[in-house]
Amino acid sequence: MLDVGTAAPDLSLQDSDGNAVRLADFTGTSAVLIYFMRTTSCPVCNRHVREIAARTDELAAHGVTVLVAVPEGRAAAAAWKAKSKVPFTVVTGERGTPHASVGLAKRVFGALQQSGSILVDATGVVRHSHAATLPPMAYDKAGLAAALDGLRPISA
């Protein structure tokens, strides 16, 4: 997983409509929270996405754009987004999973995809990084809240 205080890699992702999404595109304009779901069928991960959605106003007040990364392909991501009415951009990897690009590997004999989150500030520096093999521990509310409090607003 990425280290807090380091420069985030320029992730090349693809949204559920097939558009390219690069982490560098947000530099200078907004911070980015990427929540990495274990799978779109994980009920705990789906609950975490709903919890993040309930914080939309708080995240927006901190200048944060939310992306939800799923390990499935674009078609599955689009179907899940429509069915779940996810209010965020849903992304997958252009090649491979977005999870692998930040060090979220499969664990337990390659059977369980790790989940977690990263918060990258508007300068491209990782401010929060959390990973878990078990889904109930994948959403670190307290750690994310502390990282949000430390974000500096973008100067106009």
Overview of this protein structure:
This protein is of the alpha+beta class and 156 residues long. The protein has one domain (12-149): Glutaredoxin. It contains four helices and nine strands, in the order βββααβαβββββα. The chain has helices at residues 43-54, 56-61, 74-84, 141-149; strands at residues 12-15, 20-22, 31-36, 64-69, 89-93, 106-107, 112-113, 115-120, 126-132. The protein has a seven-stranded mixed β-sheet with strand order 2-1-5-4-3-8-9. The protein has a two-stranded antiparallel sheet with strand order 6-7. β6 and β7 form a beta hairpin. The longest helix is centred in the first third of the chain and has 12 residues, at 43-54. The chain is globular, with a radius of gyration of 14 Å. The protein starts with 11 loop residues before the first strand and ends in a 7-residue tail after the last helix. 40% of the residues are buried. The model has no long low-confidence stretch (mean pLDDT 90).
Question: Strand order of the main beta sheet, please?
Answer: 2-1-5-4-3-8-9
The number of distinct β-strands equals: 9
Integer tally of domains: 1
Q: How far is it from the N-terminal to the C-terminal residue, by CA?
A: 32 Å
Name the CATH homologous superfamily: Glutaredoxin
